[in-house]
């Protein structure tokens, strides 16, 4: 058995938040430039590779879209492992989705990486706000983070959000890389023939 480091050095971002806050819609807007008003709720995880516009201080990202429904939340902690950061999404028209951020944050910090690197996205900013921006600012101050008000429908701030993430996540160094086990078939003993 040979143990070798994984070669991929692309930081992983997990996207978390209550159901129907628009996590998948944000990613569809980012990756496909499209918005589907009738998108179905996510019931499993999916991931995308994001390559930001070429700049010196950005890096590619591995973005994991997770399920927000209660019955699937226990699976989400599987995706926290080896994550570089979390994008916590709430719906600006839903105070309950904002109130859930503490639970999502605690779950990520308890099951995820050693560093507590999160960024907020207040989605559906094209609609009337029901969440007080002052409360959002206080949450951000408490957790030393930033909030982007996004609209998956219009595309507002979607690209800026992910370029920002690609700049702030730490690069994966050799010491941070998880190890994997590479199994090799044992070589068969050479057969000796007699003359």
Automatic annotation (TrEMBL):
A molecular function GO annotation: GTP binding
Q: Which UniProt keywords apply?
A: GTP-binding, Nucleotide-binding
Gene3D superfamilies in UniProt? P-loop containing nucleotide triphosphate hydrolases
- Please give the biological process terms from Gene Ontology that the record holds: phagosome-lysosome fusion
What is the designated name of this protein? Answer: Ras-related protein Rab5
The domain of life for this entry's organism is Eukaryota
Record's family? Belongs to the small GTPase superfamily. Rab family.
Q: Which NCBIfam families match?
A: small_GTP
Q: Does the keyword NAD apply?
A: no
The organism is: Tritrichomonas foetus
